[in-house]
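dumping this here before i forget
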Amino acid sequence: SHVATLDALAGRHRGARIQLVKGNLLSREDCAVATRDVAVIFHLAVGGGKSFPEAFMNSVITTRNLLEASLRETCLRRFVNISSFAVYSNTQKPRWRLLDESCPVETRPELRGEAYCFAKVKQDELVTEYGRRFGIPYVIVRPGYVYGPGHEEISARVGIGTFGVFLHLGGWNTLPFTYVDNCAEAIALAGLKKGVEGKVFNVVDDELPSSRRFLRLYKQNVRRFASIGVPRVVSYAVCCLWEMYSKWSDEQLPPVFNRRRWHAYWKKTRYSNERTKAQLGWTPKVSMEEGFRRYFESCQARARHA
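structure:
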């Protein structure tokens, strides 16, 4: 478990004065203990759950409890909220346009049909509101798709496995990947760099691969499986029809595929890490080639122990 991993890490670095506090962010008392005498909070916790109420409770309510607890402490210097690319709306941009920190976020995230997107948008809004109303010095970090040991799943931006066949939806799209170590360093810098309060930073690596290239390498290095490439026009049409039928049936069929999700996941888009490099002094130290090597080895090890 994650707790056991943290226990082991603390045990290996006893001279580093690591204090591990175990609790539940839904508990205000536990949040008060966790924030006591803390100067920088890195809020990475996100609850599981696919329903909207569960996602809201585990992401937004927990964040509110943490913010409220931090208000009662006078030593907080920085609140770093870890968001996601999932919050961005990509509907207004033409194909192959740049997605960076200036892009709009979803104003109606409930229409995306993703509880995770809804919860992350509301979480960002809450952090921004507390910064405006109470002066909490915050930074929002939005990683792309974080890959590496411990996160071996194939991103939905590549495709979806169904009925024994993998539907490859990404085509030649660029994937907004960031290796876990590179992402962790960017998050750390967001908490330590002076003068970046109130800003948003996207985190993607250099040398981003296409979806087609990633899928080919995955099959070569991990396991082979049947896949079908779905043309962009077909995937968009399916999302439109699914959305229409969902409305017609009063959502008896949930709108899990819709035009907003298509624009967010499968529209041809470019990505930038220029602000993160320029203002945080960050560079991805693990190259894409080395990151893929470690990632594929982790996938192989996981398959052997499955």
